[in-house]
Amino acid sequence: MWMTARRQHQPRPQGYERFLIDMRVDNSETSRDTLALTIHASAKTHRSQRAESVTSRGPRRPFVPLTIDAESKLSVPALEANDLLCVRDDEALFAPLQLRVERGALLVLEGNNGSGKTTLLRALLGLNALQATTLQFLGEDVLERRHALRAGSVWMGHLLALKGDLSARENLEFTLALAGEAGVADADPLFAALGLAGFEDVPARTLSAGQRKRAALARLAASRRPLWLLDEPFANLDAAGMAVVEQLLRTHLARGGSAILTSHGVLPISVPASVLRLAALP
Amino acid sequence: MSSFRPYIGLLRRDVRLAVRRRADLLMPLAFAVLVVLLFSVALGGSANKLAPVAAPVIWVTVLLSSFLSLEGMFRPDADDGTLDQWLCGSTSMIGLMFAKAAAHWLLYGVGLTLATPLLAMLLKLPADQLPVLLLALAIGTLGATQIGLIAAALTARLRRSGILLAIIVMPLFLPLLIFGSGAVDAVRLGDSPRSALMLLAAQTLMLLTLAPLAAAAGLKIGSDSPP
Fold first, then answer.
1. How far apart are CA A9 and CA B106, in angstroms?
2. Beta bridge pairs of residue A154
3. What is the ipTM of this complex?
4. How many CB pairs under 8 A join A and B?
5. pTM over cut 0.80
6. Which domain covers residue A203, as residue numbers?
């Protein structure tokens, strides 16, 4: 416990800026539960001109303050790996990859079932074995020590890490606390934006599969971390749910965040993305 | 104190989950009471037969019933993906293990210790032995929880880990049992229980410092295969 105290405080990078992202449901404009977004910078130096240029309509409510470093390191890729390879039982799962995800960019990993998409994401976080010549996160070498990458990314897999006996609100609170991330003061607008209004306080086991997925998405919406690793984020979701994920992704990318997601078919969203297809070895 | 937030969070989460599932919390207590009842019936219920074996029987019962709750220590977290979130997060696993053991001891160790006067009554334990027994149990269950933490971490991803858990845990309980029931035996024979209690506390302290390290390592080893 004591040993770890010093790890919790990573020095903030130079040129660090704090952004406020303002999300609210705008029922009057569109029929589906779209999130209307306004982004304004709260950093002292840029406050005046930014706030004018991007604030569009309606009263602003501070929502998720984003603490990723949005201005500096913009030219440095969020994640860069060379000759990346996942090995299981002494067999490579796919041909060696060059992986590069820019700041504000979305990378889609495509491949058939069993091609190693999930394994690759897990391996990046150190949950599976990984071989590479270089692995850099925001310019920092993380091949040997994965801590910086882990502290700067959010992983969402098939298992949603929700406790059935806790409500969506409690799940969010404890997930953020255990990850060492700041809590959300008022989670109601967040859950409303995810289409969970009225379901925040019922035990998660009583929710449907799609609602549980939305409850797990709350962790993304509340996160301040720059890299999202999402395994099949559209599974179990209806059209409105997919729109929610799309809007979360758009917000995240717009504020300088990056994301890698896996898919085995056509993406149900229209966010610009680069596609990396995992090719089986000959 | 914000750096302790994840660990206090885990402690609070586990306590809240246990309160939501009160039946699971009461199971080890009910088991302990029933085992002690069986003993007192088997030995005929007379005080002169029961008194010499009361403390050892209570010790064995408490260790056995603390073992009942071990399977629920990591299995739910492994099954719903929470464990993966910990392993790929930036929060120290050792700290989380420490919090996990603390929560488990508060829920089960303290619970069993508090139920001990009832067990002592059923076994007609002489009143002068009870304070030492309670103290020894409070220390001993803390150590037993640490042993359980290691075993539960090693078997977190195995199906049907029950018997394996027993085989790992039982031999490691032996030193705790020797000095724990030895302390009460010293009182029964008119000696000072001090040295036995000290040795019990020393073991518990050693387990407290080493078990979270071992458990964190055990969970990390288990993560290399897909769940």
1. 29
2. A228
3. 0.88
4. 107
5. yes
6. 73-282
